[in-house]
Design a protein that fits this description.
The chain is α+β, with helices and mostly antiparallel strands. It folds into 2 domains: 65 residues, Ribosomal Protein L9, domain 1, CATH 3.40.5; 76 residues, Ribosomal protein L9, C-terminal domain (Ribosomal Protein L9, domain 2, Roll), CATH 3.10.430.100. The chain has 3 helices and 8 strands; from the N terminus they run E-E-H-E-H-E-E-H-E-E-E. The protein has a 3-stranded antiparallel β-sheet with strand order 2-1-3, covered by helices on one side.
Length: 150
């Protein structure tokens, strides 16, 4: 089944791309969520007319991603968390915790874009990739320190 993407889908392509997908995926997911339309003559001519607008939108997204990448790259955050013996945490540091700490630094990142393979469960430093958009990621250093109790 051939479709024209109306939105960028990470696993398929970018907005305006012509892609081939399995019929069930297109019919049951992409089309109902308005992420794609059928690649018929009418939609293809409409796509040709909107190419310039789509390219302008892509360029804007690319610039925003580069700006955010420059802002994030090389930065580090420190998170205090309760810890027990052998530097193990009570609980763990999750993507939501990292996104919240970045928000305190005026860097707005959705927790879905914090690419943790698994939650951090020990004290120390960890390099965490953050998806900034337009197929770009930036790394930040997360330092986990024990919570000082008074």
């Amino acid at each position: 089944m051939e479709l024209i993407l109306k939105k960028t889908v990470d696993t398929l392509g970018e907005e305006g791309d012509l892609v081939k997908v399995k019929p069930g995926y297109g019919r049951n997911y992409l089309i109902p969520k308005k992420m794609a339309v059928l690649a018929n003559k009418a939609n293809l001519t409409l796509l040709e007319q909107e190419k310039a607008v789509i390219e302008t939108r892509r360029e804007k997204q690319r610039q925003e991603a580069e700006t955010l990448s420059k802002k994030i790259s090389g930065s580090s955050i420190t998170i205090q968390h309760r810890a027990g013996e052998e530097e193990k945490l009570f609980g763990s540091v999750t993507a939501a915790d990292i996104a919240e700490k970045l928000a305190e630094l005026d860097i707005q990142v959705d927790k879905k874009n914090v690419l943790l393979t698994e939650p951090i469960k020990t004290l120390g430093e960890a390099i965490v990739p953050i998806k900034v958009g337009y197929q770009m990621t930036s790394d930040i250093t997360v330092t986990i320190v024990p919570l000082e109790t008074e």
